Structures are given as structure tokens and as C-alpha cells.
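Quick one, C-alpha cells below. Sequence please?
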């Protein structure tokens, strides 16, 4: 009888004793096993604040899409912008659009729905978690490559065109996305193998931790790999920034070339500002995760983690880039001529 009941629930007979006890003794407490319909808690927004929150997220998302797609299209179409720095930023823009598209439209719908209707399919959850982790990881790997590009441009300006060839750029870009794909693929692969005994998640969107916390299986491997993944990514990311900018600083201090130093200050400050915004946004979420009493603050930080870099990145790079500024200046000038004629 016991084995038949476990088999009907699609739980392996070699499952841990505590899981078997949950199945047999706690079904009356609302456990649902391997359900393909899950529920998100979402943002806890009052009726008075609902419209303001909806408009803020909607306008932020529209700006992110228009600004990043616009700069990406401009970079792709304008031959003068087919330089490593701009092509790498094109990848960053695409990544920002993907990361925000998988989170913000769904969040907008959930704000308008009552909590009981905030349902999501399991496979949609897995896809959402995959894209979110790809977005997070690729942000780090792309900015690491951009730091290398800046070092070569400043440290070896005469050999820059020889080192940063189109072939090298393709390899570095493929490596940035490929490393993220492998690491995130393993991360989610370890999670989808688990049986699920819960259907409710106190979060605004699904990530890997949210998925494996739905399980009653042993999640030691998931925790170990997730922690290793995070430590390795952050160590490589921070380490590459420290090493790269240390070398750039040495080059600037030992060089008497004022033009080179001004160029380094301009381009490196832009890149470093984008990195710090992304890094600090992620650190705030990690810190708040350790304090359950700040659950709502963590949700707001999770929204800002997507919104703030997505808005600021095109503004920072767009205003810093002389070529992009010239393009918009020409466009506005032509519009003025057409309007006056």
C-alpha cells in the first residue's frame, strides 16, 4: 500500500525517509507533489500605490527597450561604430533587453492581478530562471572582456588593431556567452532533477534558489554548486577588474602622454561606473537575502537590480560616446531643418 501510494505520486522508492514521511503523513497540510502550476507571491503593493508602481515599472521597461534597442541598432547599422568597444556594448544592450523582458512584463501583469491569480507554469519558471541567470552571468563576463579591451587600447595602442581583430572579438564574445551558458545550464540541470513538494514561492520572479526551495529532496549539491558558482564568478569578475585597472593606472602614471591619460580617464571611468552599478545592485540583493525580515525590501531591490543598470547603461555609454552623440546631433539638426522648411 505504501509503495503503491508513493509510485502514484511519481516519487522514487529510494527517496529519503523524511521525504517519504512527508508524502504519507503531511498530505493534509497542503503539499502538492511535482505540480506543473506554481504561484508567485509578487510585490506587496497597496491599492493606493498600485498605479504608481505600475507606471514606474512600465515607463522604465519602455525606456530600457527603446534606449538599448536603439543603440544596438545604431551600432549594427553604422559602419563607423564597428569597433570592439561598441560591438561589446551592443552585446551588453541585448543582454539588458533580454534580462528585463523576462521579468518586468510578467511583474506588470502580477501587479494588476490578485495574489491568488499569480500563477505560472513550471516550464515557464525554468525558462525564466535560465534567462535571469544568463543575464546576471553574461553581465559579468561581458564587462570582464570590455575591461581587457580597454587595457589593450591604453596599454598597447600601437598593437590594438593587431590584437583586437574581428576574429578575436568573435572568440571573446562567444566565450562570454558560452561560459554563461555552460555554468547556468549545469545550475538549472541540477535543480530540475529534484522532485517538488511545494507550489508557493515568496518572490517576484523565479530564479534557481526559488526553484530548488520548492523541493523536499536533499539540496546539498544545489547549494554547494550555487555557492561555488557565485564565488568563482565574483572572484573572477572582481579580480579581472582589479588587475586590469591596476595595469591601466601604472601605464597612465608612467606615461607623459596627456592625450592618452585623458582618453583612459574618459573610457575607463565609464566602464567602471557601469560595473559598479551592476555589482552593487547584486550585492544588495545578496545581503538582504540573509535577513528574512526585510523580504519586501529584497523584492524592491530585485526590481531595481534589473531596472537601474538597464536604464543607466545606455545613458552612460551613449553620452560618453562621441560617435553616438554626433549621430543624434545630426539627427536632431536634420529634424530642425525639416521642421523649419
Amino acid at each position: 500500500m505504501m509503495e503503491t501510494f508513493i509510485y502514484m505520486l511519481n516519487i522514487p522508492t529510494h527517496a529519503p525517509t523524511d521525504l517519504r514521511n512527508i508524502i504519507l503523513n503531511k498530505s493534509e497540510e497542503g503539499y502538492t507533489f511535482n505540480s506543473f502550476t506554481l504561484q508567485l507571491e509578487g510585490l506587496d503593493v497597496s491599492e493606493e500605490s498600485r498605479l504608481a508602481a505600475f507606471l514606474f515599472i512600465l515607463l522604465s521597461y519602455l525606456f530600457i527597450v527603446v534606449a538599448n534597442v536603439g543603440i544596438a541598432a545604431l551600432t549594427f547599422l553604422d559602419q563607423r561604430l564597428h569597433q570592439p568597444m561598441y560591438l561589446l556594448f551592443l552585446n551588453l544592450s541585448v543582454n539588458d533587453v533580454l534580462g528585463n523582458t523576462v521579468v518586468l512584463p510578467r511583474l506588470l501583469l502580477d501587479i494588476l492581478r490578485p495574489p491568488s491569480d499569480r500563477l505560472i507554469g513550471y516550464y515557464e519558471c525554468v525558462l525564466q530562471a535560465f534567462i535571469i541567470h544568463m543575464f546576471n552571468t553574461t553581465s559579468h563576463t561581458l564587462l570582464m572582456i570590455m575591461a581587457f579591451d580597454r587595457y589593450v587600447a591604453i596599454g598597447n595602442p600601437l598593437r590594438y588593431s593587431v590584437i583586437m581583430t574581428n576574429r578575436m572579438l568573435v572568440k571573446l564574445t562567444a566565450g562570454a556567452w558560452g561560459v554563461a551558458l555552460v555554468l547556468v545550464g549545469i545550475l538549472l540541470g541540477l535543480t530540475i532533477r529534484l522532485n517538488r513538494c511545494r507550489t508557493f514561492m515568496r518572490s517576484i520572479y523565479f530564479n534557481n534558489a526559488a526553484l530548488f526551495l520548492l523541493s523536499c529532496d536533499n539540496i546539498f549539491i544545489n547549494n554547494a554548486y550555487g555557492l561555488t558558482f557565485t564565488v568563482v564568478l565574483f572572484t573572477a569578475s572582481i579580480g579581472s577588474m582589479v588587475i586590469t585597472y591596476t595595469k591601466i593606472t601604472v601605464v597612465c602614471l608612467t606615461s607623459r602622454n596627456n592625450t592618452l591619460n585623458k582618453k583612459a580617464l574618459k573610457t575607463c571611468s565609464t566602464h567602471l561606473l557601469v560595473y559598479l552599478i551592476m555589482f552593487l545592485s547584486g550585492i544588495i540583493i545578496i545581503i538582504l537575502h540573509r535577513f528574512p525580515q526585510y523580504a519586501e525590501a529584497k523584492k524592491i531591490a530585485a526590481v531595481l537590480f534589473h531596472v537601474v543598470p538597464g536604464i543607466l547603461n545606455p545613458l552612460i555609454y551613449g553620452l560618453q560616446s562621441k560617435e553616438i552623440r554626433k549621430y543624434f546631433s545630426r539627427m536632431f539638426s536634420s529634424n530642425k531643418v525639416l521642421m523649419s522648411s
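The chain has a mean pLDDT of 82. The first helix runs from residue 2 to 8.
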